[in-house]
From TrEMBL, chain B:
Domain of life: Bacteria
Lineage, highest ranks first: Bacteria, Bacillati, Actinomycetota, Actinomycetes, Kitasatosporales
Protein name in UniProt: Hydrogenase formation protein HypD
Species assigned in the record: Streptomyces pratisoli
Length: 359, 378
């Protein structure tokens, strides 16, 4: 360090201590721009939206709600670049269907049709492409959607990662359903449909060759049926989110920010499987920030919370649903956790990628 | 492994807190040395639950934060070279050098890879014999032995294309330097349990005696921290100053002899500059002359680096307990984890980052809404 002078006596010169330089905006895309956190949001807000010149909210919600010919359509698109292509509990084919189906379902829509674009890297074995395509087809049948249009491109070897997939989807939003974070009011009850962090840890375990003692399977699943069961109790759900990249923390922060309410989470009420908790403890990660692919978080008016929770628990994908917190007037736009010991902490929007800690 | 729930049990925590409350009669300032402990304390709100008389000062024990800027700049220069695969633990990728970080090097085409074990980097070297593979060996006594092992194995297996960029630091000289500081307010230390699991407790009695401070070896789960605080306060109240091991499930007095032997073979003690602090004599390790050929600094002879620290921030005062992170005027405004002005805002184990992530809101328990336990929906 250039300015420091060696203190041979061993005493610290506190007044001479200096600090590192700030790191401002990156001139290039870094991985954090795709992490689903603050950097992703800034990229959309400051680069894409001004360039597109579309409506203010375009690109800031998982699915757009559109009026077309008297019908209310939900329209969504998502790209899938997961590595490895096959992992415990699913594959990129399952994700490509369920990711888009769930984005549609979070707007209350019944997903109907998907498009499917494959970008294949030169050299990938056709048997692998076939397995992915078959998994995608099976997932579509399970989710009750049809793949009705598609496209295939091939890039030179070294210019892709085997297989990339983009799916877009449309669905019909039932009359009377209006799911938006702006509808959240203090007093709303926050419910999560099951254990969090499972998908992210499953992917990490195979991607990095980490062994956590037990095999953790991804929770990848289509949630439209669960949403339908919830809407059958009351159309007056306020907002739903599937906490994928950035995990529960990102989803709650997005809702708090867009609704202008605060959110309080009881940390001990958040269901975290022991295997996920242990894996996160080893890696220095927080389960609240780890991705899910078959879970939703719901903000429900207090008077309907019991009935909605019961309906969720009666559905196979909501058996372990739990109330984890509530919307509050205090600290608008901010998510706060009550810790198991009785303290409080802020649950911040993740910045970019979650990084394993050194020790 | 069922430890996590057991070591976060609220009833046991309450009991320990009650004991601490009934023991303490006057103000005491304790320093937790390790950033992992700082993270636990803030994440679980332990500092809010302790009686007002017990002040926790957050020490300089975050290896990511204290890695010198010059070394970071060397890492960036080496990682930018064609033909190099640069391997690092994940949280080093975001640490800013003079003008960029390893994420940016990667976005510019550098081959920067996150590994979970230093031996993974050695495997990368075996799989890429035509490339130079460099591992960024940073951290305290905890991470030093496995990093030393990579070099030991590289020699044993004859892997010539592997080298280590070393910036290891040692805890006891840092404690010594803190206690010598004229502005020091620290009256006791929670020693870092994982460091002691390697080094044992033999380096601490001399410090405890010389500066008349209790040193309690402490673990990382909430109950570990509370037990460490309880034992420390007990000693302070009795006027004692001994080394006590409150983390016996991981720490033996002799530490881990095999790991210590590995350190003695591969490394030698050296003066080390700590980012944000300055040079502390004998506070680091570098590769010993026997292994100099595996030293990345030597191999790549990185020169001509213009390392520039900006105007000083106040992290030095934070590390001394003279200032709480949120009392700094830059906190949360010009200085955030996204744009860190100081070492302590870089890693989530840094005190400022922990405060920013978890404590931006001065909540009273009431403001945080009453517990949902009374709610009809739970």
């Amino acid at each position: 360090m250039s300015e420091t002078t060696e203190v041979r006596a061993g005493a610290l010169d506190v007044l001479g201590w200096t600090c590192p330089a700030p790191l401002r905006n990156q001139p290039r895309v870094v991985m954090g721009h795709g992490g689903g956190g603050a950097m992703s949001a800034e990229l959309v807000e400051h680069l894409f939206l001004p360039a597109f010149g579309g409506p203010d909210l375009a690109g800031t919600v998982d699915a757009a709600a559109l009026e077309l010919g008297g019908a209310r359509l939900a329209f969504s698109t998502d790209s899938f670049v997961v590595r490895p292509l096959f992992f415990p509990g699913g594959s990129i084919g399952d994700l490509a269907v369920n990711g888009t189906v769930n984005d549609l379902a979070m707007s209350g829509a019944r997903p109907a049709y998907l498009s499917c674009g494959f970008i294949l890297e030169e050299g990938v074995e056709l048997s692998v492409v076939q397995r992915v395509a078959e998994a995608l087809g099976a997932a579509a049948r399970t989710a009750g959607v049809e793949v009705v249009t598609g496209d295939t491109k091939v890039v030179e070897a070294g210019h892709g990662d085997g297989i990339f997939i983009n799916t877009s989807g449309i669905g019909l939003i039932p009359h009377g359903v209006d799911l938006r974070p702006q509808r959240v009011v203090p007093g709303d009850v926050v419910i999560v449909s099951g254990p969090v962090g499972v998908h992210g840890v499953a992917i990490m375990s195979v991607r990095e060759g980490l062994e956590f003692g037990v095999e953790i399977e991804s929770d990848c699943a289509p949630l439209a049926g669960l949403v339908e069961a919830m809407l059958a109790v009351t159309e007056d759900l306020h907002v739903l989110r599937d906490p994928t990249r950035g995990g529960l923390a990102a989803a709650l922060n997005e809702i708090a920010s867009a609704s202008g309410t605060g959110v309080v989470v009881q940390e001990r009420a958040v269901p975290v499987p022991a295997a996920v908790a242990n894996a996160c403890a080893v890696l220095g990660l927080d389960p609240m920030y780890v991705a899910n692919e078959g879970k939703l978080v719901a903000f429900v008016p207090r008077e309907h919370a019991d009935a909605v929770l019961a309906a969720m628990r009666a559905h196979p994908l909501g058996r372990e649903a739990a109330v984890i917190g509530e919307a509050v007037e205090a600290h608008p736009g901010m998510v706060v956790a009550r810790t198991g010991l009785g303290g409080t902490r802020v649950v911040d929007m993740p910045l970019g990628e979650q990084l394993p800690r050194i020790c | 492994m069922k430890y996590i729930d057991e070591f976060q049990d609220p009833d046991l925590a309450r009991r320990l807190l009650d004991e601490i409350r009934s023991t303490v009669t006057r103000p005491w300032a304790l320093m937790e040395v390790c950033g992992g402990q700082t993270h636990t304390i803030i994440r679980h709100g332990i500092d809010q639950l302790l009686p007002d008389e017990v002040e926790l000062i957050h020490g300089p024990g975050c290896p990511v934060c204290v890695t010198p800027l010059e070394v970071i700049d060397k890492a960036l220069a080496i990682a930018s070279r064609p033909g190099v695969i640069f391997c690092s633990f994940g949280d080093m990728l975001r640490v800013p050098g003079t003008d960029r970080d390893l994420f940016q090097v990667r976005s510019e085409g550098g081959d920067v890879r996150v590994v979970y074990s230093p031996l993974d980097a050695l495997r990368v070297a075996q799989q890429n014999p035509d490339r130079e593979v460099v591992f960024f060996g940073i951290g305290f006594e905890t991470t030093a032995p496995p990093n030393a092992m990579t070099v030991y194995q590289a020699r044993k297996l004859g892997i010539p294309n592997f080298s280590l960029l070393v910036s290891h630091v040692r805890v006891p000289p840092a404690i010594d330097a803190i206690m010598r500081s004229p502005s020091c307010r620290v009256q006791a230390f929670l020693a870092a349990g994982h460091v002691c699991s390697v080094m044992g407790t033999g380096e601490y009695p001399d410090l405890a005696e010389r500066y008349e401070v209790p040193i309690v070896v402490t673990g990382f789960e909430p109950l570990d921290i509370l037990e460490g605080v309880r034992r420390t306060v007990l000693q302070l109240e009795r006027g004692e100053h001994t080394v006590d091991n409150a983390y016996p499930r991981a720490v033996r007095p002799e530490g881990n002899p095999a790991a210590r032997a590995m350190l003695a073979d591969v490394f030698e003690v050296t003066d080390r500059s700590w980012r944000g602090i300055g040079v502390i004599p004998d506070s680091g390790w570098r590769l010993s002359p026997r292994y100099r050929e595996y030293d990345a600094e030597h191999r790549f002879s990185v020169t001509g680096i213009d390392t520039r620290e900006p105007a000083a921030c106040r992290s030095g005062e934070v590390l001394q307990g003279l200032l709480k992170p949120h009392e700094c005027e830059a906190f949360g405004t010009s200085c955030t984890p996204r744009t860190p002005l100081g070492a302590t805002m870089v890693s989530s184990e840094g005190a400022c980052a922990a405060y920013y992530l978890y404590r931006r809101l001065d909540l009273t328990p009431a403001a945080a809404s009453d517990s949902l336990e009374g709610s009809a929906v739970v």
